[in-house]
């Protein structure tokens, strides 16, 4: 059946309002307009960022919305003017696009393409409308991707064409979590061989940061988490030491400074907790330590430390999508996975159908999953 140019009816998990479970509904997905692509989603990860928006603490959160941003699939049809994609192409969706034309894309120091940033933040396509309707109501897009739907429409700059042999139920995770943590170590911190690192929060992003530190040749990688079950897994990714802050009588930054003869060379905050962000900075070595913020904090929250921490040579940085320029880098990351240079399978702890999407969130909140993948 040729669906090009027609409205497609399919299943999607709709978030009708903040703080409520998702509801699997029949939605209508309009055909792609100029410079847009309609994608059949094969698999999507369930990420903390989805939960962050659903909770109502995301300042850009709008409802009703189709969440999901860690997806992979195949091109169903393309809109007018699209030349880089054709029906059947294997793709990963990108919440940070790469237009190649804006001043951000032209600057090698950043990956934060701004071409469609404003409309994406409003939950709309670049023409300020939505391609989704449900029960007669327009439904907002999420992060320019909306992967919790059997079909979605994205801007052509929000897609990367990848190896058609790649297993989509695994490489979908390269659309966010794994790439983010891995790149934070390699691109943002630029971890050096022989260095000492600390990773706060050993979920998918934290484990990927551990993997990045190991790939960079770090000599010591300390995993910090209040869930001791995470330590065994972190060891397989390259962690050498573990600290559970709940088992310490002193502040974690003091414990780490003592363990490392003055502090770590690099630290990574992979939680989104502003108090942990401070601890991660203060756990860094005087004179040269660098701390990278990866976790997304709630609306209105602020970070604090004494300026003296920075005056005495520590650096505080942040990263989004691990600093990777998305269209250029994601196909290469997929190739690295296919060539066994990058772990991906090990992150997937649960696989389930879309109907069990709420269970995936429950597992995440209970700390029982690293990544749940929804299969369509």
From TrEMBL:
Its EC number(s): 1.1.1.284
GO biological process, one term: formaldehyde catabolic process
Cofactor entry: Zn(2+)
SMART domains found in the cross-reference section: PKS_ER
Domain of life: Eukaryota
UniProt key word Zinc: yes
GO molecular function, one term: zinc ion binding
Substrates-to-products reaction catalysed: S-(hydroxymethyl)glutathione + NAD(+) = S-formylglutathione + NADH + H(+); a secondary alcohol + NAD(+) = a ketone + NADH + H(+); a primary alcohol + NAD(+) = an aldehyde + NADH + H(+); S-(hydroxymethyl)glutathione + NADP(+) = S-formylglutathione + NADPH + H(+)
An annotated GO cellular component: cytosol
Domain Enoyl reductase (ER): 19-374
Keywords tagged on the record: Metal-binding, NAD, Oxidoreductase, Zinc
InterPro entries: ADH-like_C, ADH-like_N, ADH_3, ADH_Zn_CS, ER, GroES-like_sf, NAD(P)-bd_dom_sf
Cited PANTHER family: ALCOHOL DEHYDROGENASE, S-(HYDROXYMETHYL)GLUTATHIONE DEHYDROGENASE
Family label: Belongs to the zinc-containing alcohol dehydrogenase family. Class-III subfamily.
NCBIfam families reported in the protein's UniProt record: adh_III_F_hyde
The protein, known as: S-(hydroxymethyl)glutathione dehydrogenase
Classification of source organism: Eukaryota, Metazoa, Chordata, Craniata, Vertebrata
